[in-house]
Write a structure and sequence with these properties.
Helices cover 36% and strands 17% of the residues. It is of the alpha+beta class. The longest helix has 15 residues.
Length: 266
């Protein structure tokens, strides 16, 4: 009778983080918020390949760089070189985003979309106008919505917007100071262990996060993050960029979080 059916039950099976002290662990919402990605309602219409945009004659002013599929991001560090690679591979990485006064090419493409029924989809028919997608800024952290065998966390250094394959983290003023350290925490073994307690578990080993699951997840407080040496941050980011793994020195820093709770010191 003491169990909350609406809570994530995994927390009841990990003594290390069942109890926490705000002097050590805080909610991730202390540093900002995760929001779902842009829902276009018809990615096959809105997410264009460079070759398609060129063939249609749509000007660059009506296109926004985007990440439309999780599989397009291969590394935990996504930078301008990765963005250029998506363009070179002709991936659907340009979000069609015309304004009120759009070009003739965009007007023709919109007429095509209406003829194909894209304006009558569930999301599009409830938008005015139907082709107006959400206005967002690029998110510094991207976290995969669905996962098996561990979630995908990405540090985004580009101007790409994320569609619904990722939730995006938007730091507040405090979070902007710590965004790289929060990224390293979320990537670490310890961070994954703690944050995964907020996952929703489905059949066939499928896990899912909702934005508020992440916003309520636990992470280190400011004092702990401040204590992480900047040289560790730099070498860790370099290692993730070049080799795709976190150095053991960084892993050991975050392991202190569960060591404290396992020993009952929180």
């Amino acid at each position: 009778s003491s169990l909350d059916p609406d809570a994530k039950w995994a927390v009841n099976f990990d003594r290390a983080v069942t109890q926490f002290d705000p002097n050590v662990l805080v909610r991730l919402s202390r540093y900002g918020r995760f929001s779902r990605g842009i829902a276009t309602g018809a990615n096959e219409f809105f997410a264009l390949r460079p070759s398609e945009a060129s063939l249609l004659g749509i000007p660059s002013t009506e296109l926004v760089p985007c990440i439309s599929k999780s599989s397009h991001v291969k590394s935990p560090i996504f930078d301008t070189e990765d963005q250029r690679e998506l363009l070179a591979q002709d991936r659907p990485c340009l979000l069609f985003s015309p304004g009120n006064s759009h070009s003739e090419a965009s007007a023709a493409y919109l007429r095509f979309g209406e003829a194909q029924g894209y304006a009558d989809r569930y999301l599009t028919r409830n938008r005015v106008p139907w082709y107006r997608t959400e206005i967002r800024t690029p998110a510094g952290l991207l976290l995969g919505v669905f996962s098996r065998d561990g979630y995908k966390i990405v540090r985004n250094y580009t101007t790409c917007l994320n569609l619904t394959c990722f939730h995006g983290f938007y730091p507040d003023l405090l979070g902007s100071r710590f965004i790289d350290k929060l990224f390293l925490y979320l990537y670490s073994r310890t961070g994954r262990r703690i944050v995964s307690l907020s996952m929703r578990k489905y059949g066939d080993s499928l896990d899912k996060f909702e934005p508020n699951d992440l916003n309520r997840a636990l992470c280190p407080n400011e004092r702990f993050l401040d204590s992480i040496p900047e040289d560790i941050v730099t070498t860790s980011l370099d290692a993730l960029r070049s080799a795709g793994h976190l150095p053991e020195a960084a892993e050991e820093i975050f392991e202190a979080l569960t060591w404290s709770t396992d020993k009952g010191q929180i």
